[in-house]
TrEMBL record:
Lineage: Archaea, Methanobacteriati, Methanobacteriota, Stenosarchaea group, Halobacteria
Cofactor(s) for this UniProt protein: a divalent metal cation
Keywords, sorted A to Z: Lyase, Magnesium, Menaquinone biosynthesis, Metal-binding
Domain (Mandelate racemase/muconate lactonizing enzyme C-terminal) ranges: 132-227
Organism: Halolamina litorea
Main EC class the enzyme belongs to: lyase
Reported function: Converts 2-succinyl-6-hydroxy-2,4-cyclohexadiene-1-carboxylate (SHCHC) to 2-succinylbenzoate (OSB).
GO biological process, one term: menaquinone biosynthetic process
Protein name: o-succinylbenzoate synthase
Gene behind the chain: menC
Length: 348
């Protein structure tokens, strides 16, 4: 049966500025199914990372039969419409967990063969591109709010300016710092960046090279700073990333991978191969953020995740089910993804 599909649009209070452009608004769909219970999902496409808004809607209105073959969430790489699959599969998984009267995190932990899920997940503050002064000010606010880790967007300015930004933050605040270049650098610049950031004790450098450069990423490893894959994972899939030995850390975005189940299956394979998964949103609404928190909670001893993104939105789909307190998010207690707090949101 086709799911119920309702569009929404959410503005960001300040655009998130990255080397790959600015994110200013998020448009997507709430998705409802009622088998075996009432389940709610969210599909929030981010073109470049997922299909377009229109392709997402078309897929949701006519869901491919393959989405119901639940044992193969990863398929042979990226699904054609990952955000639509996410919305649909989240609704189905929510319904299943509600039927089992347990939180989605417990359902997902079982699926991954993991122990009992965590109650809280450590998170990083997300700091967009900006001047040295603005970057330090944002890092100071993060430290005061209780974060232990900040992720700084780099790659939009010259490397020497980014190095100044990172050094200024490390001098000003007591935070672990990771940086995300969103694929901006060529091999030579990436090599220089890795050398500099290793000498500062940066935790990891995310996507220093364009998505296609798996062997380039592999060549940057072992130089004193971690290498994280993000866009590369979306483009090539977990199997190819592992085969290339491309990363120490892999960013799992359930919305871009095709669902919470796909993200858990990816986490399982990464952990089995010694790569650390980090779970992040694509700046989603409250329903998909909560689902990403459940995914992260199911991953044993997960590193700080990119899940503290709700504050970037001016309005949201409802009350925040997983607010950030002291650098961690609380996992919604369920049952299902967000308990009963969004019940009725698809009714007129
Ligand atoms: O990881 C985070 O801190 C937040 C998520 C984030 O940075 C992001 C959000 C939307 C699109 C791409 C990215 C990214 O990690 O590159
Ligand atoms: Mg990234």
């Amino acid at each position: 049966m086709s799911p119920t599909v309702r569009p929404f649009a959410l503005d960001l209070s300040t655009p998130l500025s990255t080397a790959d452009g600015e994110i200013t608004e998020r448009r997507g769909f709430l998705v409802g199914v009622d088998d075996p219970a009432r389940g709610l999902g969210e599909a929030t496409p981010l073109p470049g990372w997922t299909e377009s808004f229109d392709a997402c809607e078309a897929a949701l209105r006519n869901p491919p039969a393959a989405w119901d073959r639940v044992d193969d969430a990863l398929g042979d790489g990226r699904p054609a419409t990952p955000a639509a699959r996410h919305g649909y599969r989240l609704a189905v998984l929510d319904a299943a967990a509600r039927d089992e009267e347990r939180p989605l995190s417990a359902h997902l932990a079982d699926r991954g063969g993991f122990e009992a899920p965590a109650d809280t997940v450590p998170v990083n503050a997300t700091v967009g591109d900006g001047s040295v002064e603005d970057t330090v000010a944002a890092a100071q606010r993060a430290a005061e709010a209780g974060f232990d880790t900040a992720k700084l967007k780099v790659g939009a300015r010259s490397l020497s300016t980014d190095i100044d930004r990172v050094r200024a933050v490390l001098d000003a605040v007591d935070l672990a710092v990771r940086v995300d270049a969103n694929g901006a650098w060529d091999r030579e610049t990436a090599s220089e960046a890795v050398e500099a950031f290793a000498s500062f004790g940066v935790e990891y450098v995310e996507q220093p090279l364009p998505a296609g450069a798996l062997s380039g990423l592999a060549a940057l490893r072992g130089r004193g700073v971690g290498i994280a894959a993000d866009e590369s994972l979306g483009e090539h899939g977990v199997g190819a990333l592992l085969a290339a030995d491309g990363a120490d850390v892999a960013e799992l975005k359930p919305m871009a991978l095709g669902g919470p189940d796909a993200a858990i299956d990816a986490a399982r394979r990464l952990l089995d191969t010694g790569v650390d998964p980090v779970v992040t949103t694509t700046i989603d609404g409250a329903v998909a953020r909560a689902a990403a928190v459940h995914v992260a909670a199911a991953v044993p001893d997960v590193r700080a995740c990119g899940l503290s993104t709700g504050d970037m939105l001016v309005t949201d789909l409802g009350p925040d089910p997983s607010p950030t307190v002291d650098g961690a998010v609380r996992v919604p207690e369920g049952p299902g993804n967000v308990g009963s707090s969004f019940d009725g949101c698809l009714r007129d």
